[in-house]
Write a structure and sequence with these properties.
Helix 5 runs antiparallel to helix 6. This protein has a 3-stranded mixed β-sheet. The chain contains 9 helices and 3 strands. The longest helix is centred in the N-terminal third of the chain and has 31 residues. Helix 8 links the parallel strand 2 and strand 3. The chain folds into 2 domains: 203 residues, Cation efflux protein transmembrane domain (Alpha-lytic protease prodomain-like), CATH 1.20.1510; 97 residues, Alpha-Beta Plaits (2-Layer Sandwich), CATH 3.30.70.1350. By secondary structure, it is mainly alpha-helical.
């Protein structure tokens, strides 16, 4: 059900971008406006990104198999990274085109009203679609859909920027503003691409979960302080929307295997309530009990842990 919702959201993005590309290209060529055509190029890259997102969310939903024991979630991170590279490429192309216009001169831009209309339509459509994608991304914890939503949200800002630029050209009659606006649009695109790179690529390197999420794990552990001695080697990472968490839990050596297993299950269940889509491994270790003080503590904790069995 979750994967179906993600796939439908990605398909909506593909349809929306396809329509906007056609409209922007027709109007941009008719106006001979590099800023409007740059917006069409940006939407073209977004279409490629939407197709990649659609493919990745479809594949990431597949269950773990013999070759992919941790599932297929990281394909979303790879897809997001590819999308970021595509956006960087689009921004460089736009800057190159605008620079050429500045060097060779800018022809008079016509039909400013059509340009303003298509930019307004684009901004509204992309805002609505990006809001839907972001809602689904948050609900399903999808990196690929979040990346696609960021693309479209960037389109909203750049469309508004181009719209403002066309209005300035209309008021001042200075056609040179067109490539200047295109360069500003490209710089905004580069900023969005860098933000996306941080979101998608770094999880490929198995960086830990955010501090606020790890804080939730530590908070859960405080609820069980009377039933274990200490925990260490906490390791966290993320693969697509799946969080992988493992730790070593030191328990009194007197408790039974059953009591240790029950304690592990309770801790795992509570962490999963706080962090959805989590796979958790708790390695149970017995306390060495090498000193009298430790032995007394182990005996008390052992009684507490055993009393947790119902």
């Amino acid at each position: 059900m979750v994967n179906t919702e993600k796939t439908k959201a990605a398909q909506l993005s593909i349809l929306s971008n396809s329509i906007l590309i056609a409209i922007k290209l027709v109007v941009g060529i008719m106006m001979q406006s590099v800023s409007v055509i740059s917006e069409a190029v940006h939407s073209g890259i977004d279409l490629v990104a939407a197709i990649i997102a659609w493919f990745s969310v479809r594949e990431s939903g597949k269950p773990a198999d013999d070759k992919h024991r941790f599932g297929h979630g990281k394909i979303e991170n790879v897809a997001g990274t590819i999308e970021a590279v595509l956006i960087f490429g689009a921004a460089i192309y736009i800057i190159w085109e605008a620079t050429q216009k500045l060097r060779t001169g800018v022809v008079e831009i016509e039909s400013l009203g059509w340009g303003a209309a298509v930019m307004a339509i684009s901004a509204i459509a992309n805002y609505l679609v990006s809001r839907h994608l972001l809602n689904v991304a948050i609900k399903t914890d999808s990196v690929a859909l979040e990346a696609d939503a960021m693309h479209l949200r960037t389109d909203v800002y750049t469309s508004v920027g181009v719209l403002g630029g066309l209005a300035a050209i209309k008021l001042t009659g200075i056609a040179m503003l067109d490539p200047i606006i295109a360069i500003v649009v490209a710089l905004m695109i580069i900023k969005a691409a860098w933000d996306l790179t941080k979101t998608a690529f770094f999880h490929v390197l198995d960086v830990k979960l955010p501090d606020d999420e790890e804080a939730l794990i530590h908070e859960v552990m405080t609820h069980y302080t009377g039933r274990f001695i200490e925990y260490h080697k906490l390791r966290t990472r993320k693969s697509g929307h799946i969080r992988h968490i493992d730790m070593h839990l030191v328990v009194p050596r007197q408790i039974t295997v059953e009591a240790g297993h029950i304690l592990s299950d309770e801790i795992t269940a509570d962490i999963k309530k706080c962090l959805l889509h989590s796979q958790i491994l708790v390695h149970i270790e017995p306390c060495p009990g090498s000193c009298e003080t430790c032995a007394d503590e182990c005996r008390k904790l052992g009684e507490n842990a055993t009393s947790g069995i119902t």
